[in-house]
Amino acid sequence: MPTLPPRWRSLLFPALALALMFGAWRSYGGQGVLLAALMISFWVLLHFTQLMRVLRIAASRPMGQVADLAPVLHRLRVGQSQSDVVRLTRSLGLRVNAAEETTSVLSWSDEAGHTLVATFVHGRLSAFEHRPPEAPSAQS
User: Fold this and answer.
1) Partners of 116 in the beta sheet?
2) Do 130 and 66 form a contact (C-beta atoms < 8 A)?
3) CB atoms within 10 A of CB 91
4) Contacts of 113 (CB under 8 A, 6+ apart)
5) Domain coordinates of the chain in residue numbers?
6) pTM above 0.85, yes or no
7) N or C: which end of the chain has fewer CB within 10 A?
């Protein structure tokens, strides 16, 4: 599924909300506008509640730690939002790169030593890499 450019994605919700408000006003007048405003606010509250639930679960776990990385890797897809990845890992990732405006690189690891490094551009997963555990070096 192709993703929208970041600028279009940020304008999509206000444009749809305005179209809904205009259509409600044309069809039902003031009562339609009130109903449309209530529907939009309900939708915003649902998404806010969902995001807070994900962050509450992630806050109860150590940063960058995952119980098992295999199911997470199986369900990851390029284009997922950062909140979807946090929902999958049930943990906030450790920042790998310096703070940039559009790109962030986060990592998660499990107890076996496997590491997931994910790159997010404008809040969307653009690439991810699985790093297997490093073999212990033999010292003589």
Assistant:
1) 108, 130
2) no
3) 22
4) 132, 133, 134
5) 6-57, 63-131
6) no
7) C
